[in-house]
Design goal:
The protein has about 280 residues and is an alpha+beta fold. The chain is built from ten helices and eleven strands.
């Protein structure tokens, strides 16, 4: 099935093709393809039930064996949404797709410059940090940084936090051995919660974060690098307890944003680290 889909994209004669989709949260190689466009033709907008997952390495291999070359590094459009532009070197004009013009390239260059400028403002404390990804991935609970829970080491805060939901050693070990933090989170959502979970979860998260951002550690330096910026765990999965969801429905329901408990904990730990310095 995927071979047929790749054929629809790469076997059609064209000077260039655009592919757009979302990267899986917490990953850099899982892409959900949602649209593609051949130069001179209308974009093919896939319906949500037609969206399909692939590995970016497989995408590159399928393109390469058909003579396509990635024209530019993947261009971030918004959030986790990226654009991939391929062309055929044999086409001497190296023409862009119909929807891609010098004006489009100029706008995208300005967007990249604006993003860099925003990071600079954030470091200086002039603008809030609203996404724990990209330059600020260290703030995410998915970031690799060993922590301990009851004497057992987990490779990131997310796994340890999810394991803490249960006292069953076998379930904890299964979560610890999960291939990714995302998988651990999904496993944790299916657990029967320990009776005191709601009362303890804030304390447990705080304790794990203080391990991760221990004074003098590389992670602590990353947190201090945020300066005085307000930290908001912006997301699109409707979590308005630990963060603040950016979807329209959640914004209408929470016009002042979510509780952002994770962001507030990080700012508290940052303040403690600043005092120690």
């Amino acid at each position: 099935m995927k071979e047929q889909r790749f054929a629809e994209i790469f076997d059609k004669p064209a000077a260039a093709v655009i592919i757009q989709g979302d990267l899986l949260y917490g990953h850099t190689n899982r892409l959900q393809i949602q649209m593609y466009e051949h130069r001179g033709e209308k974009p093919v907008l896939l319906q949500p039930d037609e969206w399909w997952w692939t590995n970016t390495k497989v995408l590159e291999e399928e393109a390469s064996k058909r003579g396509w070359v990635l024209k530019y590094p993947p261009i971030k459009k918004a959030g986790l949404h990226y654009r991939y532009i391929y062309h055929h070197p044999a086409d001497e004009t190296e023409a862009q797709p119909a929807s891609y013009s010098p004006h489009t390239e100029y706008r995208e260059r300005k967007q990249r410059e604006a993003a860099i400028e925003q990071v600079a403002r954030q470091v200086e404390g002039e603008a809030p940090i609203t996404s724990f990804s990209g330059s600020w991935i260290a703030l995410s609970n998915f970031a690799l940084s060993p922590v301990q829970l009851d004497g057992v080491t987990y490779d990131c805060v997310e796994k340890a936090y999810q394991a803490a939901k249960t006292t069953d050693p076998k379930q904890r070990e299964a979560i610890r051995m999960a291939q990714t933090a995302g998988q651990a989170k999904r496993m944790g959502a299916k657990l029967t919660l320990r009776p005191d979970w709601e009362a303890q979860k804030g304390y447990i998260m705080g304790a794990l974060l203080r391990q991760k951002f221990a004074a003098g550690s590389a992670m602590a330096n990353q947190l201090l690098r945020t300066g005085a910026a307000v930290l908001i765990e912006g997301n699109n999965w409707h979590d308005n307890y630990w963060g603040s969801c950016n979807c329209d429905a959640c914004r209408r329901k929470h016009p002042n944003g979510g509780q952002n408990v994770l962001g507030r904990l990080l700012m508290k730990i940052r303040s403690e680290l600043t005092t120690k310095h």
